[in-house]
Write a structure and sequence with these properties.
There is one protein chain. This protein has 107 residues and is mainly beta. It is 11% helix and 39% strand. Strands 1, 2, 3, 4, 5 and 6 form a six-stranded antiparallel sheet that branches. Strand 3 (33-44) and strand 4 form a beta hairpin. The longest helix has 12 residues, at 83-94. It is globular.
Length: 107
């Protein structure tokens, strides 16, 4: 189980792998829904081939902390990302580099 503000990896039925901050999981309704904040996807920088995080939805306001919803039926699995990816996510979404951050994470 995740706590609010935990960083989570989410593999979707579309094949996308999303990294986001966990907000909540609503299982009280028939529409079981995951709420996440500042979702990103891992991609390769075309200029240098290094991995980088970009917003999952191009239309999203990257300064907003409003949650995005994903229906449970579209989620294959969730995981806790490795420390270097979690640190890179924090730096990418907040501008704050954790003291131990190594943003040159390896895939």
């Amino acid at each position: 189980n995740y706590k609010k503000n935990d960083i989570v990896g989410i593999k979707l039925s579309t094949g996308e792998e999303v990294v986001a901050r966990f907000d909540k999981f609503d299982s009280a309704t028939n529409q079981k829904t995951l709420y996440i904040v500042k979702p990103t996807v891992l991609t390769l920088n075309p200029q240098n081939g290094q991995a980088m995080l970009i917003p999952w939805l191009m239309s999203i306001d990257t300064t907003s902390s409003d949650p995005i919803t994903i229906k449970k039926e579209h989620i294959l699995t969730t995981n806790k990302p490795n420390k270097s990816l979690a640190d890179a996510y924090l730096q990418s979404t907040t501008g704050i580099a954790p003291a131990s951050a190594n943003t040159n994470f390896q895939l």
